[in-house]
Batch of 3 targets.
Target 1
Amino acid sequence: MNQQIPEPEEVRHRPLAIDGLLRELARTKASSGDAEGFVQSVMEQIRTNSTARESFGDEFAEASSPNSTEAQFHWGWAAAMAACFLVFFGIAMQSLRTGPMAVVADASGEVWVRDASMAAPVRVHSGMRLFSRAEIFTVGSQSGVSIRWQDGSVVNLPGGSRMVLSTERGQKRMELLQGVCEARFQCQSEGKPALLGGPYVNAEIVAAYKWLNETPSHIQLAVMQGQVRLNQVLDASQEMQDDRPSQRPNDKERI
Amino acid sequence: MNPTSFNDKSYEILVREYHRRALAYALSLIPSEDDARDLVQEAFVIAYRNLDEFDQTRDFGSWLRGIVRMKYFELIRRRKRQPVSVEDLEALDAFHAGWDQAAIERNASALDALQHCLGKLQNSARALVDGYYFEKQRGQAIAARLGITEEAVWKRMERIRQVLLTCVNNYLAESSL
């Protein structure tokens, strides 16, 4: 291979065959038990994936496959035992509730989720499955999360947002508690529009929607298909308390 | 071994047999060990899902590398990075195809060959390789330790890689005799 040296170390990652071999040799020397860990991790992922496919079909199974395996590799025995306990506990908890409604397609920065089965919020990772009444929140301006529903509809939350997601008899419900949300919905079942709501939100509807329901303290949008952007208005509560609804940002922009 | 029956147990044997070569391939494409592991892990899962479509007259390693390559390009696109050149990829594939062949026909491992060749390196060259690959030292630190410039470190490293590559290929070729 035609290799050019010197190169800055940070950008030096040409596909040198020998370089890859050396790295692999060094990697396995550094973590002697990693080979077995890797094999088991792959097989575990295959089994998890098969389960997801049985429930949702191939596409959803692919979306639910975890991307990051960092945490699976450097655990000692104590951590492994703790993980086993958590897995069994998780399986037990999952068997007590309905199946996952959505999956985290992508997460960056600090993203947390909490649902009824969790004593405390847990860090979100790509491929994580979300169950009904999951409250998901993004911390810091650099964070963000993309959630894919079972039908392929996608909800994006940028940094500093908080949303509760749930399903009720197949109807999607999303409550934006803080921040901004952008969503793209597949065509929903007749009579079961996706419901997006929250107090004092500014709704920008980019495509089709069904109806907009306003109360003095709440706004709710029912979406059959299309794109929606909801923006929680931080100072709207003050405006509402002042009984000046006309000063609220326009939430009736319709296309 | 090529996949002849598609149950979990036989696939686990395949994973065991091919994962280090696949990781070496991925680590040639991308420097991060975590990224390389993710690529290979995903590739194995995708391969498992599509085993029905696998042409058993072909080499499984080559098919798996194709999937790793595909996932690599996906990752690079997502991160808006510059991918490796087609020429470099072709050269990389050619080396791995040869090593696969040696493994299948003569049960000779390129990683074992490399281990053997590392043992034959001169002390100064070995110190450089150990520092960079095994102790994860940066070029600047190695240069300071050896009392040479960083540029000289990379030049030496380049020569050592070429020596090792030749040695590995010779070793694998001799193993057939």
Note: DSSP finds five helices and 13 strands in chain A.
Target 2
Amino acid sequence: MDLAVVILVEVLYAIASLVLISAGLAVVFGMMKVINLAHGEFMVLGGYTVITAVGLGVNIFVAMLIVAPLVVGLFGLIVERLVFRHLYGRMIDTMLASWGLSLMMIGAFKMIFGNTQTGVTGPIPGLTVGDYQINGYNLFIIVVSLLLLAGMLAVLRGTRAGLIARGTMQRSDMAAAMGHSPDRIYMTTFAVGSALAGLAGAVMAPLVGIVPTAGAGFIAKAFITVIAGGPSLVTGLATASGAFGLVNQAFSFLVSPVIGDVALLVAAVVLLRLMPKGITTRFFRGRL
Amino acid sequence: MAETVLETDGLSMRFGGVVAVDHVSLKVRARELRCLIGPNGAGKSTCFKCLCGLLKPTEGRIFLRGEETTGWDPHRIASLGVGIKMQVSSVMNGLSVHENIWMAARRFMPARAAAQKADEVIERLALGSIARTDLGRLAHGERQRVELGIVLAADPWLVLLDEPAAGMTADEVDRMGDIIREMTRTAAVIVVEHDMQFIRSLASTVTVFHRGRVLMEDHVERVMADPVVRDVYLGKQA
Amino acid sequence: MRGDARKDTLVVLVLGLAMIFGLPLLIDPHQLTVLVAYGMLALSLGLIWGFGGVLCFGQAAFFGLGAYTFAIAGINIEESTLPLILAVLIPAGFAALMGAFMFYGRLGDVYLAVITLVVSLILFRWLNTTAGQGYEIGAARLGGFNGIPGFPILNVPGRPDLPIWGESLYYVAAFALLIVFLLVSWLLRSSFGRIAIGIRENEERVSLLGYDIRARKTVLFAIGAGIAGLAGALYATWAEVVTPNLFSLQQSSEVIIWCIIGGLGTRFGPILGAAGLAYLKFQLGQQSGIDNMFIMGLVLVIFVLLLPRGLAPEIARFWLWLIGANRRTARRRAPRAGGQNG
């Protein structure tokens, strides 16, 4: 029984971390069809922000949940204005430019923070369940990801901004015809996506050692989760994360963590073969 | 009696709840010129796409020269010797007129022979002056002529044309008509068209589509005079 | 048309030989050798992407496979001729399998690109775990992230006692590149090549002409992989060690960047991009002021924003002028990297 709880927590955690990692990219890709290959680096930026903020005495939760998203969101805004704005509609050029940006960021991290691994300690102690220890922080992550999904649904369904966002996702020209500047919508969307990436990186920082090249590990998983998710933003994110998180954890548990990662990648390839445009083109169509 | 080169048996195409083509049975003979007409949404273009292999029919069968080709991929159908020209101009923009036509011919003959064939077709369609120009730079009428050339180059025994006269000037339409008539010396030609005058000038058997079904099939003059057809086309110029 | 072909071949030979013998006077042949290997790798991607329209983000995978095959086969056979051949055939075979999986599955361009990258990363991840006993192919240990050292380097065919290295290796590699370049040129002029270009232009139309585009793309993809594999073998014999880094995200990105900077749509553009950028990287490696990756990234961003076609249009123009080609042969527009927006 205790073991079941532990396993359940681990599985939920795997799913939750995928949700967190992929949310920012899903927003940006789902809304604007922009594939930001620097997404991993945006997350790492969030991580470094937390480390720096905590080093300056800021409370760790404030740093993770407020400071990091703000900083990375602002950064995303600047980058959007400078680079991506000129490349809309050119999907592959966007990928390439974002690739260049990612390299620049990695280089910058190396220069500023050096190559060694830095980190922060997890602020939540472990819990004991029966004979097993679980990392309390994992629970925190699960909660954050659930709140995130709920928040996204609430914004999309309940607010005016969300409605405009949904409209633009479907027909950007019509949204423009109704007086909403697509330019501003894209700018805001990219900033929000960046902020989410920053949040993810910040929250993951205590668990993952932050090195300049940590982004590469995130981007692959985020990328395939987003593409496998398909057009529905929240549902796609949830289902793809659910599927891959489960596979990842299963194989990690049965064999080894590395094989778990490999299994995730293999599952992605198989899934894309069967449903090339994503899960939510076949199941849960039309949902948000 | 000439052989049947194309036959459909109960051909149907459904998209969700919409029945675009409803149990259509056609028979076209060798070297026959057949026009498929009907108001917008009548199903003629969808039927056309099924014949080309771009759509897999939900029901029914298609036979080309006696061989069943239902559900075949477009390239298999084309390699039987079927020439296809779609409604939307679909050519290789970055390549020259000669290259485009060469590629069509090359499927059925070696490279050098294909180059010669391309030269012949270019001559025949008076495309000599633009033979080396990239397709992307040509005017619409010229592109349509090149598309015809692409179809001719393969020496097909069946030609499927979807709205060949669209967007052309009266002169160009006349010339198109001549070319089509000439094609029937060696091939059966099926034309999907809207332009009534053009269809009249082709003077052939006409199959009228209405709501996915075949309403009537007869010589164009008789069809034009028929009151039911008139009703269906109410408001259209005949 | 045939006159142009002959002129083209002649100019390629003249310029090629000039470069092969001239460059060592400016740059150390040892360094040139790896530039040649990278150039060949870039050419392979330029072929399938620039001319064939097949977007592949994981070309490094075939490079790595070629290198590893050369190493592993070399350790087991102790002579280099068969390993060299295998280094071409195994990546090509692997690509054929991948191609069958991807092209027949009707995946869109972008997803194709991602899957090829993902496969490369899978190999990277897995190879990094293969340290120690139990991970052997014949007599060769995979060696995990340390890779495989100490395999026989290239030797004169049939004479394992006569290794080829140093300056001789440079000449062998350079001539290999020249020959591959000529073969690629011939391929592009052939019916297969011209139809491949047609497929890049308008896939649906070409299939309506009766061509099986899935089979053709798979074949082209395999050819590109074979060339990349050969480049990998050349790299292996130069470096004398093969590591999983050959499959890394970094290596994969570099190949793409070389092609973008050099420009797609010409044969020489990617080679120039590869050699130029790799050389730049070595030079930058000497200085430690600004991080290399930062500079590479900056260069890429600037090129995408300002010169999306890379240097290719200028190269193409120069080339046409050189061979005095018929101006009325309207300029083949080099496809933009974003040309296949999906």
Note: The first strand of chain A starts at residue 127 and ends at 129.
Target 3
Amino acid sequence: MSESAPTAAETRRIAEEARDRVRFEEEALELSDQVFRVARRLASSREEAEDLVQDTYARAFRSWQQYTPGTNLRAWLLRILTNLNIDRGRRQQRSPDTQPLEEGDYFLYNKLESTIADENPDEERVLERLSQNAVVDALSEVPHDFRDVLVLVDIGEFSYAEAAQILDIPIGTVMSRLHRGRRALKQNLAEKTVVS
Amino acid sequence: MQPYLDGVLSDEQVKEAWEHLADCPGCDKRYRFEEDLRRFVKVAVDEPMPPELMARLAGLRQPLQ
């Protein structure tokens, strides 16, 4: 076979590959807004989130052939992103070994409820006492390991199984970190709630 | 309560939880609070992608040979 003239089969293969790649890139870009929203809460600043998303897409576009078409592309992208986030040495800050107080589960509810004289407070109104900034800060103060799971499941709406796959941890660990993360979040929120 | 909210319980367990919530105003109130809290947190922390980032991402696409 001559080196200069590609065969018809080769030409077709190159054309098919180009078509698959373009399709991959377009599908990935369509998900970028959702990827950013999750990244924003995993990273500590907006700038850091933008860098993370950009590095994720650069890597995804380079290694697109490792993606299996028909599988969950959003989870695949988030897996790259969480790995990059860990590679950045973010994990130097270890999660505390101590568990948050058991009370954390109902502490927020009880505190919010106690600030309202009404015997039967309307839940929506109870929550109105929390400012948006307080919620953002409370989430950012949840230890990293717990926050990753919390953000993937509660913000990204990934299933336990998807979160386990993205973070490469057992599903039981997802559940326990989620539970502890939510408890830490509520405790942080309770601390930020102004009692009038 | 958390697995119930996450929708990971079996049909049988969901039924059990439902029956319990119907009979227990205390748990029902906390359940609704948990549900509202999650929705509230999700909305409060939401931040859409800056449009210029989208343009930068599109710029990362590999040129066709």
Note: Chain A has two domains: 8-92, 104-192.
